[in-house]
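Summary for the steering committee. One of the milestones for this cycle was to obtain a three-dimensional model of the protein with iron/sulfur cluster bound, which we needed before selecting residues for the alanine scan. The sequence and ligand used are listed below.
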Amino acid sequence: MSAKTKSPVGVEAIAAKGWLGAHKWLIARRLSQTAFLMLFLVGPWFGWRVVDGTLAGSRTLNILPLTDPFITLQGSVAGHWPELTALIGALIVLAAYALIGGRMYCSWVCPINPVTDAAHWLHDRLNMPKGWQPKRHTRLWLMATVLVTSALTGTIAWEVINPIAMLHRGLVFGMGAAWGVVIAVFLFDLFVSRRGWCGHLCPVGAFYGLLGQKSLLRVSAPNRAACDDCMDCFAVCPENHVITPALRGKDGDTPLILAPDCTNCGRCIDVCSVDVFTFTHRFDDRMSVATPDAANKAA
Amino acid sequence: MPSSSPMSPARRRFLTDTARMAGGCAVAGLGLAYITSDARALPAEALRPPGALPEDDFLSACIRCGLCVRDCPYDTLKLAELGMDGPATGTPFFTAREIACEMCEDIPCVAACPTGALDKSLTNIDDAKMGTAVLVDQENCLNFLGLRCDVCYRVCPVIDEAITLEVRHNDRSGHHAIFAPTVAADRCTGCGICEKSCVLPEAAIKVLPIRLARATSADHYRKGWEEQAEKGGPVLDGIIDLPDRLPGPGTDNLAAPGGYEPAFKLPGAGQ
Ligand code: SF4
Ligand code: SF4
Ligand code: SF4
Ligand code: SF4
């Protein structure tokens, strides 16, 4: 935490790239989250029926079906083989996220992400302790538990408490007491467990993570030689264990962040004052040509 | 001996962690199972959309996307809100007394459903079975009191088949008729329009889920008259048909005033 005492996270990046430059992926992400929500909301609000339904299942422009593959999977193990429309919808979503990175869903689409991001922001402001930190793979266990429970009860089990579906469906169709579930996630992340929900527990995130194992779109650290050890990327990354192998790799180690936990949120790109990171594809393991500055440091 | 050699700390930690995780998951799974079973109790006044699979199958099929709700032109359907509505959170339902199903001919709700939770094999809305109307309160139904309200009968989209007015004698006034609204459960779709339209402050006719509205007859029951009609003669041969004792003239009874003529005359009986 010595890096933290040096200067608050992001200050150097803002100084070097300007506020906009140091927040461009964050802004893009917030715009994307808003846009995904608005696509569903302009229907009920203004009667423009662009996308009907919810994230669980939707129909775009009256033709394109999209279905959440994790929900479809739960329904299937619960004993209902869905009709073609839902299957096609699920396959399209599967293919898309397998390509761009499953956890893109988490950082660019999921409506809970702004909630847990807000909790984390406040958590930092209040200088709270980390709290309970269950193992990262707890979410995989939870995902398996959800599937087993679905099979045993013959229901789509996770949907009875899924905060993502509750928030999204609530905004589109009416909230009821679903606010309670959303607030519970916020408070959990704030007081009980730093980055607890998305980083350790959410079985939906776990599912999408598995989906993106071999995804094409990746963040890379080709300019890692320029790293000045400010640790800001570790501070902003919601899954910061994924950074180490890429950033701290020895010569010959790939600069690509290949861990499927990476949500492709791009905050590390934003917050780095010396532009170590960039978006690229998984076969691009080139290192950037060392700048004189970086070469000095490496030497 | 592997059994006597002490377990390595790493291995011990791995086993403890795994056991702990499995325990935690068992507890989480039980909790989840408990909530799902709780959500399975569908309240009696909540009706599922046309074509909905039986409740148990429905809960494994419906992904709670709301497309059926969006495509219902009458805003009949709603998605259940947590803590406000009875059915499992997010699943579609309607309350007949609020907005009934208008029985759209093209059944847009079924067409919209991507999963088959609303069964596409329902192609004629008259075959829908959302529930069954039951005249639950004869003491307050205006028609049973001898008036001619008839509203539930008139509004029924399957009028004269799903619901009829059965004429009977009004014993109270002695010389009027009662037009009793009577539901034929095999034709009633459970749309709820009758319940919605009942003029009383609380409807005397209500659509109930079929599990509540209907009895099932025992497997071994046979209706003699049906079997006889099917066979075109007595079910058992050589049975002796004894004369029935009927009220009214023409039998061995005393002639009762207003009694009925027997449908047939036994040879040599009465006078
Ligand atoms: S981990 Fe779960 S809640 Fe968090 S962003 Fe991903 S899907 Fe959403
Ligand atoms: S049949 Fe028509 S009115 Fe009835 S629930 Fe379906 S869409 Fe709505
Ligand atoms: S359209 Fe089908 S899957 Fe979607 S909410 Fe209605 S019944 Fe459920
Ligand atoms: S619910 Fe009432 S209105 Fe609808 S079909 Fe049955 S008897 Fe007719």
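Key point for the committee: The mean pLDDT of chain A is 89.
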